[in-house]
Amino acid sequence: MASKGGSLGWALLTGRDGDLDPPSAWWRGPAWVKVILTTAALLVLVGLTYGSWARYLGGGSVPLIFFLLLLQLTPPLLVLRFPLTAVRVAAVGMVSSIIAILFPAPYALFGPSLSEWPLQVQVLPYLPVLAMTLARTKPGQGWGISVIAIALATAVGIVQIPRTGTKTLVWSLVVVAVTIVAGYGMQQRRRALEQADEAERTTVEERTKRTALQERALIARELHDIIGHHLSLIALRTDSARYRVPDVSEAAQEEFRALGVAAREALDEARRLVGVLRDTDAEPEHEPQPGLAEVPSLIDGCRASGIEIRAELSGGDVPAMIGLAAYRILQEALSNAARHSPGSTVDVEVRREPEGLTILVENGPPSRPAAPTGGDGVGLAGIAERVTLIGGTCETGPREDGGFRVAVTLEITGEA
User: A Gene Ontology MF term for this entry (predicted)?
Assistant: First the structure.
């Protein structure tokens, strides 16, 4: 029902509170400050309203005055959670006030010939209720509310003509029109902010996906180099085995030949499948890929740039793919710490365990302001993507002290 804006044009009569959009966060300060300010505003309104109605209706109209006060103060208290209900109560309050003006009690002190102030004061809390409700409507939902508000404003002005001429009529229409425009202005601003937030989320998601694809392409190139190297060695050794190994039977030679053929077919198939992930626009990398042996050099380079690092390295021998992944993960985790926590000490631990290779990088809160980087977590997404493709677990997130933690375990299913 909420999506059918046009069918809710007369939302005041037919709509439900849940049909409107949720309220925007209009206050980000302490809740107690909001309570104090709201209470103070309501007390001021109570004083103004009671005084103006008491002057107009007389002391004997206390029950009626309190009834009008109740209708005046209820809508502001309801508008955040029950906006349409608040507007309905406000409409009843305005109609009741108009009736009280048209038919004053016989014991009124000043009678129907005095002052327009009761209606002006009565309408004050209804204006923000009207604006806040219109701000939460979807396009096409609020025009019925606007029409009824203008009709009530016109009625307020008409009943005051015998006492004030057309001044109150003009005042009422101008004030309500400005309130309606303000409400629709807040509606448009809220929708623009929501669209901007959605666009930002979409941009971040697209950037994360693109980073994941780039990470897959990088892993594909690394896989190609490592798998291709080992499969080529297998094919070469099986083809040459019948010449290197003496007294090889014909059956064994045929077996070696079949193994060589299978290795070459596996190499071709691996190249074809890895090519699905490869970035066809990227140039192949022929330089030796880093591994655990290069991690100390990586840490020394970070220290030379001013990062204080405490490292415990005990990785041992691991498969080349695991060593390369560990190097890349440490590289990104250290870069992340340098960008977002300048001046903090970074603890690095790499250890070999039965279930795999564990990598832990932790840093404390920054000791000086971090420079704006525009980062959106794509580097961490790259770490997660690498762990997903290789196998293992990845946990990243802030620490209670304001620092950050990256914990990764890479599964090792075979020895190097």
Answer: ATP binding
- One DSSP character per residue, 49-93 reads HHHHHHHHH-GGGHHHHHHHHHHHHHHHHHTTT-HHHHHHHHHHH
DSSP reduced 3-state for 311: strand
Q: Can you tell me which residue has the tokens 């053929």?
A: 261
In a domain, 187, yes or no: no
| Token pair of 319 as six digits | 């498969």
Mean pLDDT, residues 71-93: 86
- Whether the per-residue pLDDT at 103 is higher than 80: the answer is no
Match 């980073």 to its residue by tokens.
Answer: 211
Q: What is the rounded distance in angstroms from the CA atom of residue 215 to the CA atom of residue 372?
A: 24
- Please work out, in degrees rounded to the nearest 5, the angle formed at the alpha carbon of residue 228 by the alpha carbons of 223 and 234: 135
User: Which residue did the predictor score with more confidence, 206 or 223?
Assistant: 206
For residue 182, CA distances in Å to 124, 148, 352 come to 15, 17, 64
Same domain, 223 and 91: no
Specify the 3-state DSSP secondary structure of 350: strand
The answer to the question of residue 379 being in a domain is yes
Amino acid symbol at 55: R
pLDDT of residue 378: 60
Tokens of 82: 């029950």
Look at residue 4 in the predicted model and tell me its pLDDT. 43
- Whether residue 1 is predicted with pLDDT greater than 50 in this model: the reply is no
What domain range is 109 assigned to? 6-165
Question: What are residue 305's phi and psi, to 5 degrees?
Answer: -85, 0
Buried b (16+ CB within 10 A) or exposed e, 375-413: eeebbbbbbbbbbebbebebebeeeeeebbebbbbbebe
339 assigned to some structural domain:
yes
SS3 per-residue string spanning 224-247: HHHHHHHHHHHHHHHHHHHHHCCC
d(CA 329, CA 39): 55
Number of domains the chain is built from: 3
Predicted pLDDT of residue 310 = 92
- How far lies 313's CA from each of 95, 151, 323, 351, 359, in Å? 80, 78, 13, 6, 9
Report which DSSP code applies to 407: E
245 and 390 inside one domain: no
Q: What's at 290, amino acid-wise?
A: P
221: pLDDT strictly greater than 70 = no
First CA to last CA across the chain, in angstroms?
Answer: 62
Quote the longest CA-to-CA distance of the chain: 130
